[in-house]
Amino acid sequence: MNNWIKVSDQLPPENKRVLVWYKTHVPGGVEYVARFGEISCGHWRPEGGNGNFDSHVSHWMPVPEGPKGEKL
């Protein structure tokens, strides 16, 4: 099942922790990474970090439930 949502189709609620799929530059090219993030004040923010990565996020998805219904 693919639960990834295109940023161009829909954004998550403000300040809601989600998984984001984004590109980052690494030596020798570009790499795609999934990590936790959220939209805060209209910008994508990595969890636990400052700044934004607006232009790099292409997809997001709600955080799935973990074992026994616990959130990641």
| Structural class based on helices, strands and sheet pairing | mainly beta
Number of helices: 0
Summed over residues and divided by their number, the pLDDT gives a mean of 85
User: In percent, how much strand structure appears in the residues?
Assistant: over 45%
Strand order of the largest sheet: 1-5-2-3-4
Q: How many domains?
A: 1
How big is the Rg? 13 Å
Order of helices and strands: EEEEE
Q: Give the overall silhouette.
A: globular
For this structure, the quaternary state is single chain
Outline the structure in words:
With about 70 residues, the chain is mainly beta. It has one domain. It has a 5-stranded antiparallel β-sheet, with no helix packed on it. A hairpin with a 2-residue loop joins strand 2 and strand 3. The relative contact order is 0.29. The model has no long low-confidence stretch (mean pLDDT about 85).
